[in-house]
Amino acid sequence: MQSFDASHLTYMQANDQMQKHPSNGWVLKSYVYSMTLTNKGIKTEYSGIQNFFVAIDLSSNNFEGEILKILGNLKALHILNLSNNVLTGFISSSLATLTNLESLDFSQNMLVGEIPPQLVELTFLAFLNVSHNNLTGPIPQGKQFLTFQNNSFYGNVELCGGPFSKRCANSKDPPTPPSNFEANQGSNFPFKFGWKVVAMGYGFGFIVGVFVEEIKITRKSGWFIKSFASGHTTGRVKWRRRQK
């Protein structure tokens, strides 16, 4: 678990000798190991174990005490599952040296303290579950931690920061970035916005004014024709001559 050579792919197996017949001597038999373990939250059966596939699954026992710092020496470790135990103490920052780690499950224990920010450097980490502990403080941000959902941290009421909506006290998180519309306006956004509103108001008022004035002119023309024109179908106006 501390070192491996992936260039020579083999499977974990056991060799056994048995005597088939006194005249034939000993016969060598090989048996490939198989196993069933929980990998990335899914129980999986492996009919063969490749030599570079290194895992520790001690879940669902009654192990007590702290997580040993010596686990940080197991450089070849791909899976570490210590869930459903009675483990206490802190999550050691020495786990950040497990650069090949793909799955880490510490859920359903009694761990305390903060999640070490050094774990952000585990760039191969595809599955993380530290739910249902007594962890506190901010959730590390960046890299693989940006891909983990709420259920990875659920059940730790004192955790804060993304992906939770609960902000941490004295948070140094940057403010929410402005929308694209606001960003396009620049620093003079209030003035430019007011100028556009005024321009829109004048434009709308001008259109309405023209429309209303057109109605008034039409009505006045009708009244003028009815008042001074005679009722000829040709629509021509007949004027009366004044008697002297």
List the SSEs and their pairings:
Layout: E1 13-21, E2 25-32, E3 35-39, E4 42-46, E5 55-57, E6 64-65, E7 79-81, E8 86-87, E9 103-105, E10 112-113, E11 127-129, E12 134-138, E13 158-160, H1 180-185, H2 189-228
Parallel strand pairs: 5-7, 6-8, 7-9, 9-11, 10-12, 12-13
Antiparallel strand pairs: 1-2, 3-4
Can you walk me through this structure?
This protein has 244 residues and is of the alpha/beta class. It folds into 2 domains: 13-160, Leucine-rich repeat, LRR (right-handed beta-alpha superhelix), CATH 3.80.10; 180-228. The protein has 2 helices and 13 strands. The chain has a 4-stranded parallel β-sheet with strand order 5-7-9-11, with no helix packed on it. The chain has a 3-stranded parallel β-sheet with strand order 10-12-13, with no helix packed on it. β1 and β2 (25-32) form a beta hairpin. It is elongated, with a radius of gyration of 40 Å. Mean pLDDT is 74; it is low at 174-183, 185-199 and 230-237.
Question: Structural class from helices and strands?
Answer: alpha/beta
End-to-end gap:
131 Å
What's the CATH first level of the largest domain? Alpha Beta
Overall structural domain count: 2
| Helix content, binned percent | 10-25%
Task: Please report the number of helical segments.
Answer: 2
Assembly context of the chains: single chain
The CATH architecture of the largest domain would be Alpha-Beta Horseshoe
Residue-averaged pLDDT: 74
Ranges where pLDDT stays below 50 over 5 or more residues in a row are 174-183, 185-199, 230-237
Q: What is the string of helix and strand elements?
A: EEEEEEEEEEEEEHH
Which fold name is given in CATH as the topology of the largest domain?
A: Leucine-rich repeat, LRR (right-handed beta-alpha superhelix)
Q: Widest sheet: strand order?
A: 5-7-9-11
* C-alpha geometry: elongated
Instruction: Profile the largest sheet.
Output: 4 strands, parallel
Q: CATH H-level name of the largest domain... which superfamily? A: Ribonuclease Inhibitor
Radius of gyration: 40 Å
Percent of residues in beta strands: 15-25%
Number of strands: 13
